Every structure is written in structure tokens, then in C-alpha cells.
Amino acid sequence: MNKIDSVNNPKLKAWAKLKQKKYRTNFFLCDQNLCDYAYKYHYLDTLIYKNEMPFPFENSYQLSEKAMAKLSDEDYIGIVKTIENKEINSKRVIILEDLQDPKNVGTLIKCAQIYGYDVAMSENCCDLYNEKCLSAAQDSLFTVNIYQGDIKETILNLKEKNYQIIATGLWKDTLALSNIKQSDKMAFILGNEGSGVKSETKNISDQSVKIEMSNIDSLNVAVAGNIIMYKFSM
Fold it and tell me: Please, which residues bridge with residue 77 across strands?
């Protein structure tokens, strides 16, 4: 059994750095709830606990109370492998362009799991391993096909595969959601919380859509995405 008592242990210091985005290249730190899912889906690299080992795991470390306090106040946590880019293969895709609120991104990934969507993220979206994103996404992080890359390239690749590309926003030719006809393959673009979908992105889309509303002017992007994904779920 591996034990760490000192707060100056090099491994402990390296794990603590994972709280910062710049160090989360290959691994990230997760709470005990997400640790269970990481173990289930074979993404768990290191199990860290302070009292009793929650489940058998070869690469595990027992920490003293003081050492564990440097990382978390929970009984156990995990060092988890970052997820690899996964190929988009669902007939429904939600595309996130430059979303900055990690809770929105995590919520949309969870909705994608519920409604059977794959998720494509632009390179400038918020950190996927932010605590708020992880808390909202939970097991969906490991079960949903998530691809992050150049958004123009992603859209053009989807068009080659006969996806209907629909941007959300308010333009002169924008259709109401109820007027969008369901097709075999559909991808919906959700834009940045403040500025929406970029004009250049809209220009390579097939059409644009807005959600009919009364008494309010706008919706939170995660709420809007949930409505769209529900309406066009397979």
C-alpha cells in the first residue's frame, strides 16, 4: 500500500497543480462522485483516499488528513485521464461555438447524453475539466462522443456527410423552431453566451433558427440547447 503523510511530497504537489488549467494536459483532478464514473469507464489513473479504500485499485495512495486537505475535503478523489477526441457518428450533433460558462457546457453535455447527441466544441470553448463543467456533466463526460477542434472544419466535414447545419440566432432569414423540418442528419450550432453564433459561422450553415418566446427576450444557452435537442431527438 502506498502512503503519503507529508504535505511536501512531490506527488502531492504535482497533483495539486492539476487544479490549474495549464497543467491539465493529460490528467485532471475529480471529486469522489466523478471518480466512481471514471473507474467504471476505465479513465481512472490514480485513486487517492484518506481513510478506507473505496474499491480495489492497484494505483492508489492513502493520504494523511493534512496531505488530503491540500487536494480536497472529500474521503477520496481521482486523478483521471483526459478524454480523447471521439468521432462524431450520431445523426444528431450539438455544436458549441466559444461558450465560456463551464456550467452551460457541462449541462449541454448532460443533455446530449439524454437525447442521443454527439457534441462538437470549438477550440475556444471553456475548459472541459473546470469543476463546474465536471459537476454538471458527470458521467456524460465519458459516455458522450465529444470532439473539440476548428469549428469551420468540423462544420464542413459534417456537410460532406450530409448533415443539415442549423445555426441559432436572429437574422433576416431565420426560421422559427416550429418551422424547421426534421431531417435524417442534423447539427445545431449554439453560440457564445454574450455574442451568439458568429456571422462567418452562420454563413456556412444551411439555415438559422430561433425559439419562439413570449414575455422574455432571450434564453440561457443551456436552456435553449435543451429545448432544441428535445424537439429533434431521435
Answer: 48
d(CA 210, CA 168): 6
Name the CATH architecture for the domain at 92-231: 3-Layer(aba) Sandwich (3.40)
pLDDT band at 149 (very low <50, low <70, confident <90, very high): very high
Q: Tell me the domain boundaries of the chain.
A: 2-81, 92-231
Number of CB atoms found within 10 A of residue 72's CB: 18
Please determine, for residue 218, whether its predicted confidence score (pLDDT) is greater than 80: no
Amino acid, res. 9: N
- Helix then strand then coil, in percent of the chain rounded to 5, is 35, 25, 45
Determine the topology of domain 2-81 in CATH.
60s Ribosomal Protein L30; Chain: A; (3.30.1330)
- Taking the model in full, what pTM does it have? 0.94
CA distance 218 to 194: 11
Q: State the Cα–Cα distance between residues 37 and 68, nearest whole angstrom.
A: 21
pLDDT digits (tens, 9 = 90+) for 130-148: 999 999 999 999 999 999 9
**Which bin fits 98, alpha (ψ -120 to 50), beta or left (φ > 0)?**
left
Residues with Cβ within 8 Å of 72's Cβ and at least 6 positions away in sequence, in order, are 29, 31
